[in-house]
Amino acid sequence: MINKLTFDSLSHDCAYNIREALSKELLPVIKSNKEIVILCIGTDRSTGDSLGPLVGDKLKFLIRDKVHIYGNLENPVHAKNIRDVLNDIHVKHIDPFIIAIDASLGALQNVGKVVIESKPLSPGAALNKDLPKVGDLSITGIVNISGSLEFMVLQNTRLYVVMKLAEAISTGIYHTVLKTIGGKKSSVHLSKDIVTELISNLES
User: Can you give the pTM of this predicted structure?
Assistant: First the structure.
């Protein structure tokens, strides 16, 4: 159980620390043969709220038998569709372990920090949206300061901050999967044209 861990996305060892924290948490999950769902929440229509889709986009290639990614720049998971996505997840996966990722607002000194907790997160809480809590484990990136006019704050968030957070979180998750599950078994698929060219080269 992770009570609450906070890492600075600008620190050179941020991704490493995320990997170590997640690996310890996920090893029992993997041993129990549970499927892992990484749910990246947010929308690309708002800079401050684009953290989740950016992380999902960076992890699109992270395909494993027991690891599934929901939410990216092309198909974001946001306030209007999250209930449908959650229903879809629970239909397709039996009792999965869900890692929920979302942007959040916080104190000025915490902007740029990654927060990991063994508890659900509340999507849209900054904007007072009534959405279901989600996640067995939550990863939030503090993208800007909380206070008032949260919608405007999210719209005027620096892309640099969001990108640094997305890079640290996605890299940490990627290396967690490599450490706990291993590399993807690759298979080479050659097109007919490439095979024909290879045969032609061998015969010449």
Answer: 0.86
